[in-house]
Structure formats: structure tokens, C-alpha cells
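User: What would this chain look like folded?
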Amino acid sequence: MSNANYDDVFTTTLESRIRSLADNVSKNNALLNRLQKKGKVRRVTGGSKILEELEYGEGDLVWYSGYDSITYTPKQLFTAAEFDLKLCAVPVAVSGEDMLKNAGAERVIDLFEKRIENAVKTMKNQMSKAVYGDGTGSSGKEIGGLAFLVADAPSTGTVGGINRATSGNEFWRNKSTTASAALTSETIRPAMDAMYLSLSRGTDKPDIIVAGDNMYSLYEQSLVNLQRFSDPKIADAGFAVLRYKGADVVLDGGQGGYCPSDKMYFLNTDYIYLRPHKNRDMKVIGGERMAVNQDAIYKIIGWAGNMTMSNASLQGVLSDKASV
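Assistant: Here's the prediction, encoded as C-alpha cells.
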């Protein structure tokens, strides 16, 4: 077993860093940050699927007088969406040669810290990218992000085991609008108004609008002659944010941002969740992982879970014509 003297140092250094890894991942992405703040990061304890119970029907209300009959007709009011458990990992490795070149306890810890910092950044960035994906990346092994849950074509495809194209499953379709002409600073807000109103149901309204570069810029330009408002809490978290009818409009483009430039996602995060497995939420997988035929030490940081949704009809995506 090679480099056994360094394994305890490597392990303790790694463990001390990953305690805050899950929290750091949420801080790197506006949507995940919102889900964390609202308690929508719900851990999975087991099972082959992640289930979200859906309430999609209404019972019978009967108006009556005197001795009128009050009848009851059994109806199916609930169903469930099921999502696969997706897994990802970032390996951290240090060769014996590198450790020899960084002799001395402090120098070794510095080396481990740099490797672990890189793994943390990798996990943060790739998870932020997957949040906007459609789940087809890495041969279908990635989580189903917004392009999957809040699709451009919401009347097609199967989400959570429910076929959106089937008659009777209209409740499971998000709203999607593509501008008939390229949006401008004059037309962006009317388009946003229409989408926002289509997603409002009593007190249920979008609470965050995640925008790419083009859409965020158009909305910001539309406010030139108006007073601007922003939420200090999310702004203090480091995100560029404006306000729209009580919702935060957050830029998640720019360098290292993955929201498509010509899209705005109108999200009601009361019904969107991040569901990590409690035993694989940015944790070291397994015990000792010494290389059998190499002079090196390996550790693997792992995550398992998925993004899920319990109401599609209150989610929407607005696209500029330039994106099609």
C-alpha cells in the first residue's frame, strides 16, 4: 500500500473542505440558492425512484337546498411523478512524486488543498451547468434541468414518467412562449407581462425569473426611465438582480453562466426541488482508495439525486425569436 503516511492528512483535509461543499454549490447558482433558502432541498433516504406526489384534480362541490341529495362520484385526484436517481463524482488524486516534491507537512497540506479546491470548483460549475440541461448529457446520465422540466415544447415528451402529449395530462405542461419578432427594450416587458399573468393563480406567482445575457440586458434597458428595485438578500449573495412584480430577475449568464442568452425562466420555486440522496450529498464515496498498481492516493467526492417538480403549469419559459 503506497503513501500510507500521507493518507490521513489527505483524508482529514478533504473531509474538512467538503463539509460546506453542498452549501457552496447552491451559492454558485441563483436557482439552487433560492431552493436552499426556501427549504426546497429535500433529501432522499432510499428507493429506486424519487417520487413527487401531484394533486391535479378537484372534488365535487354541490349546491343544494332543503333535502336535496348530495352525491359523490369517486375521482382520481392525485398521482405521482417519478424521477431517476442520477449520480456524479469528482476524483481527487495525488501522486507520490508530487508529494515528494512538496515535502514537509505544511507543503503537503497545501498540495491537497489545491487539488480539493479544484474538485470543489468542478462540482460547483458542472452542477450549475446541469441545472439548465435537458438530462440527455453524458448519454442520459445527467440530472433533468430546466430544459427538461420547463421545456420549449411542453406538449411533447415524458417528464417524471408522465407523457405530456397524452390527452388528460395537460396539467403537466409548462407554459412556453417564443416571441414572434426579436424582442427589444420596448417589447420585452409586455412579453413578460403575458407570461407572468399566465402563471399567476391566486397567491401562486413566479418568485424568480432566471435570465440569460440578452434577456436580462433587454429588461434592464427597459428600466432606464424607471426606478429600479432589487432584493438585497439575493444581491448580497453576489447575483446581479432586478425586480419584476415581486419576483427577482436574476442574471445567470455572463462568463461561466449557463442560462441560454435568449431565454427567461419564470419559476415558482414552491414546486421545484433539488433532491440529493442523504448518503451521497457531496460526500467522500467509500473508505480508503489507495492505488493498487500506482504510487498515488485517490479520493472521490460523490453526489446522487435529481431535480424534480410537483407542478408544471406554474412554470414558464420565454424565448426571444433570435434563439430559434
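The longest helix spans residues 105-130. If you want, I can go into more detail on any region.
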